[in-house]
Write a structure and sequence with these properties.
By secondary structure, this protein is mainly β. It has helices at 4-21, 310-315, 355-358, 384-390, 404-407, 423-428, and strands at 51-57, 61-63, 68-77, 82-85, 90-93, 100-103, 108-112, 119-123, 136-139, 150-151, 166-167, 177-185, 200-203, 210-217, 224-227, 230-239, 246-249, 253-264, 276-278, 295-306, 323-325, 330-334, 337-339, 345-347, 361-364, 367-369, 375-377, 398-400, 408-410, 418-421.
Length: 432
């Protein structure tokens, strides 16, 4: 028994190291990405469609795994109907007609996939590309901060004008259904006004809606758009989106937990591409300032720009900020990783740098790695005040320079990508 203290010490060191590994960024005792995600969807072949979804679905409908469905044009679920999708079902968005699926206010989608049998929304083209089809839109009656209800604009829906495509209301618990173990691939088709569909738009959706384990890959528009409402979002993945990975706007009160955004400099749009965008409005005159401003709590995120030559891409101005915070919005971000951006965070130029505003923009226990600058105000190269504030030891923020291969467990194996931090990388880093 004389070796017991040594054995106990080794055991405690192992436990402590394991906890350290899970402290920042995406967490999990195992790699939760390994079973249901797909980082090479271009190599996956699906059956041709044998069922068509088109027009209006106004009665309860169930999609079966044994069939492959095509979204032909704009498809709407209305009249309080429930659209249920079996695990393993494949739904293909039509390229020619800009296939899309909209769950209108009062209707419900139950897309409750399984870890071993996810539900797939993808493109019908033989050579798939970002923007092949529209996307998924879910509308609810939870609060938003605009005057009156919001109405979808810019999508050019060619359908019955009697369909209600408004969102927002007073029902904080607005339940639009379930999206769990769902993959959305190659969405974001361009609209007639020159903008893009978003892969998944959640507008006025409330607390009783379940959104977890959803992966968006190769979207030509934003991956996840959240307008108003109140949501708890967990284990989301945005992979190589052209635009914004997670966009929060119009007074949403949202929590984003244990989620991932992976960017590539060469697929980002010049129209604005970042991992996290926090705003309360597009135009101030459109919103009521007596209503809640957008407030987001982000915990255990990993935001990473994958690059083989980051310095060169920065010189070409291909690399932008990871996080942008607009005026009249708040973000509390903790225990997260931001790696490979220029800079890590950008605050809107109209935000005054004072104690009141900085208390609304919190970064604590963060891991800033290999970024060309950390936290700046827009159009201002002098960030000394911000560095002094967020660099205070009471925030426990960590700053490091390291290769992706040294920072993350495994980001080279497409079959089992693992974006959890390496144990020794956290332990060896210094706090500035």
């Amino acid at each position: 028994m004389k070796h017991l203290p040594k054995i106990v010490s080794i055991f405690l060191l192992f436990i402590g190291s394991a906890l350290a590994q899970q402290e920042k960024g995406v967490i999990g005792n195992s790699n939760w990405l390994s079973s249901w995600t797909e980082f090479r969807p271009d190599l996956v072949e699906y059956n041709e469609a044998n069922e068509i979804l088109t027009g209006i679905i106004s009665t309860d409908t169930k999609l079966l795994k044994r069939n492959t469905y095509m979204l032909l044009g704009d498809v709407f679920v209305t009249n309080g109907a429930v659209l249920t999708i079996e695990p393993g079902t494949v739904i293909i968005g039509d390229f020619k007609t800009k296939g899309s699926l909209t769950i209108t206010k009062g209707a419900t989608i139950i897309a409750n996939g399984l870890e071993t049998d996810p539900i797939i929304f993808t493109s019908n083209r033989s050579v798939k590309k970002a923007g092949d089809w529209g996307g998924i839109i879910i509308l609810g009656d939870a609060p938003i901060n605009t005057y009156g209800n919001g109405v979808l604009t810019g999508y050019n829906f060619a359908t019955d004008a009697s369909i209600d495509i408004s969102y927002g209301g007073e029902n904080l618990e607005s339940n639009a259904g379930i999206l769990r173990y769902v993959r959305i691939e190659y969405a974001g088709k361009r609209t007639r006004d020159g903008d893009n569909f978003n892969a998944l738009l959640l507008a006025g959706v409330g607390t009783e809606t379940t959104i977890d384990n959803v992966m968006v890959s190769y979207s030509a528009g934003n991956s996840f758009d959240i307008y108003g409402g109140e949501l708890y979002l967990e284990k989301l993945v945005s992979y190589k989106s052209n635009r914004i990975d997670y966009n929060f706007n119009y007074g949403t009160q949202s929590n984003l937990f244990n989620s991932l955004a992976v960017r590539s400099s060469y697929v980002s749009s010049s129209k604005g591409s970042r991992c996290l965008n926090i705003a309360s409005y597009e135009k101030g005159e459109d919103v009521s300032f007596i209503k809640q401003e957008t407030a987001v709590t982000a915990l255990n995120l990993t935001l990473v720009n994958i690059s083989d030559d980051l310095d060169y891409e920065i010189k070409l101005d291909l690399v932008k900020e990871a996080v942008f915070i607009g005026n009249d919005a708040s973000l509390s971000m903790k225990e997260s990783v931001i790696s490979g951006f220029s800079p890590a965070v950008l605050i809107d130029n109209s935000v005054r740098v004072n104690n009141e505003n900085l208390k609304k923009i919190m970064f604590q226990k963060m891991y800033f790695n290999n970024c060309n600058g950390n936290i700046f105000k827009e159009y201002n190269s002098d960030n000394e005040d911000l560095e002094n504030w967020y660099g205070n030891s009471s925030f426990f923020n960590v700053y490091s320079k390291g290769l992706d291969s040294e920072t993350f467990i495994d980001i080279k194996n497409d079959n089992r990508l693992d974006f959890r931090l390496r144990i020794n990388k956290i332990l060896a880093s210094n706090i500035d």
